[in-house]
């Protein structure tokens, strides 16, 4: 490094860190002059060769402050130069990446710059049209879906997008991502992409759904495979983050659109959810039961629940075992099933798997009046069948007015 001559130690010719001045008025680096005096046993000034009678050393605070000030100025200047170089490299990559035969490596370089950069770098990326470039690369998969390089470039573009959280929160960016071509491309990655690419894609979808943009209409246009892919990711026991993300995305979608509920049901969502519910954590169980509840609000969903065979058992297992919210949702699901002309098998399952027992227990413990009203309605609707079973409490028959043979 080039630095002023008076900052150098006359002995080593290196930049001084701890400058001290001796009796001749010459300043040296402390460790160097100490070595001259005490190790080499010299009694002269190294610069003037003047014989010394005193070996006292006085710290040169003024020079030290000047050296530190110069270093800080140099550091800031270098930092500015580096940022300028990074900016130029960023702009160059964005402008040439689409025509480059090495898109994947260029995207990795871009991602490295964005990851190491500050807010200004991410802002530059957006101002230079980086988001639009990435979307065009992502959409290229629709034209060359069988080309490995195109597919990898699409995956890299999605992994770069997720590194821009501030940009992803902007409505302008969301609208670009909601273009039909971009959504179809992301649907392909959900089906066929690597584990990392699928996680990036479902994370981007989650950010889209947090926005105020009208995204539900675009989602409704997606095919059955889109919902199958979401459920596959949701069932993934290895990548819990991706699974949680997919679960929340599915909730957001079904809350917004009844049409999407029907597509999810057709894609086999009811079967998948019932099968993963028993071994799910408490928080995940609540969300899964909420999804089941939303689908049971449709006739096709109730049919799917009944046809599975273990729906009653799965819901009953979670009632009174996870949370008040979970129990409330569970009662709502059973209410929807029981109010829609359930088969004899369903009614038998409710008794056999302990659903009736838990419903009766709910009448004796605290809970919302709405939940208790649903319980009473279920028991009154089907108590005539259940009262013949010795397990059905006799005192409850009187309470519900089931003494006679008819309701």
TrEMBL record:
Pfam families (UniProt xref): ARM_PUB, U-box
Catalysed reaction, written as an equation: S-ubiquitinyl-[E2 ubiquitin-conjugating enzyme]-L-cysteine + [acceptor protein]-L-lysine = [E2 ubiquitin-conjugating enzyme]-L-cysteine + N(6)-ubiquitinyl-[acceptor protein]-L-lysine
CDD domains: RING-Ubox_PUB
InterPro entries in UniProt: ARM-like, ARM-type_fold, ARM_PUB, PUB22/23/24-like, RING-Ubox_PUB, Ubox_domain, Znf_RING/FYVE/PHD
Gene Ontology molecular function terms on file: ubiquitin protein ligase activity
Keywords for this protein: Transferase, Ubl conjugation pathway
Pathway(s) served: Protein modification; protein ubiquitination
EC number: 2.3.2.27
Role description: Functions as an E3 ubiquitin ligase.
Protein name (Swiss-Prot/TrEMBL): U-box domain-containing protein
């Amino acid at each position: 490094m080039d630095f002023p001559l008076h900052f150098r130690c006359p002995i080593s010719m290196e930049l001084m860190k701890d400058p001290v001045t001796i009796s001749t008025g010459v300043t040296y680096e402390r460790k160097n002059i100490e070595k001259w005096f005490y190790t080499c046993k010299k009694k002269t000034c190294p610069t003037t060769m003047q014989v010394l009678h005193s070996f006292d050393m006085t710290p040169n605070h003024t020079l030290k402050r000047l050296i530190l000030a110069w270093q800080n100025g140099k550091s800031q200047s270098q930092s500015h130069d580096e940022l300028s170089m990074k900016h130029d490299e960023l702009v160059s990559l964005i402008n040439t990446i689409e025509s480059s035969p090495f898109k994947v490596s260029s995207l990795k370089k871009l991602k490295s710059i964005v990851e190491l950069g500050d807010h200004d770098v991410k802002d530059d990326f957006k101002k230079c049209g980086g988001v639009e470039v990435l979307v065009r690369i992502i959409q290229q998969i629709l034209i060359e879906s069988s080309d490995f390089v195109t597919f990898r470039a699409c995956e890299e573009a999605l992994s770069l997008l997720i590194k821009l959280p501030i940009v992803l929160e902007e409505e302008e960016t969301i609208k670009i991502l909601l273009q039909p071509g971009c959504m179809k491309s992301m649907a392909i990655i959900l089906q066929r992409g690597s584990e990392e690419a699928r996680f990036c894609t479902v994370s981007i979808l989650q950010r889209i759904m947090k926005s105020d943009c009208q995204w539900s209409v675009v989602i409704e246009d997606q095919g059955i495979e889109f919902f199958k892919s979401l459920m596959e990711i949701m069932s993934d026991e290895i990548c819990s983050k991706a699974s949680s993300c997919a679960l929340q995305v599915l909730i957001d979608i079904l809350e917004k659109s009844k049409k999407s509920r029907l597509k999810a049901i057709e894609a086999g969502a009811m079967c998948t959810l019932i099968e993963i519910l028993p071994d799910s954590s408490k928080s995940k169980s609540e969300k899964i039961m909420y999804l089941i509840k939303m689908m049971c609000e449709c006739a096709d969903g109730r049919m799917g629940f009944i046809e599975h065979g273990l729906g009653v058992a799965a819901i009953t297992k979670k009632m009174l075992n996870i949370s008040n919210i979970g129990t409330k949702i569970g009662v709502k699901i059973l209410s929807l099933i029981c109010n829609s002309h359930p088969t004899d098998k369903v009614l038998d399952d409710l008794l056999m798997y302990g659903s009736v027992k838990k419903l009766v227990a709910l009448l004796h413990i605290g809970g919302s009046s709405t939940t208790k009203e649903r319980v009473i309605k279920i028991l009154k609707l089907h108590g005539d069948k259940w009262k013949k079973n010795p397990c059905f409490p006799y005192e409850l028959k009187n309470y519900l007015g089931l003494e006679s043979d008819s309701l």
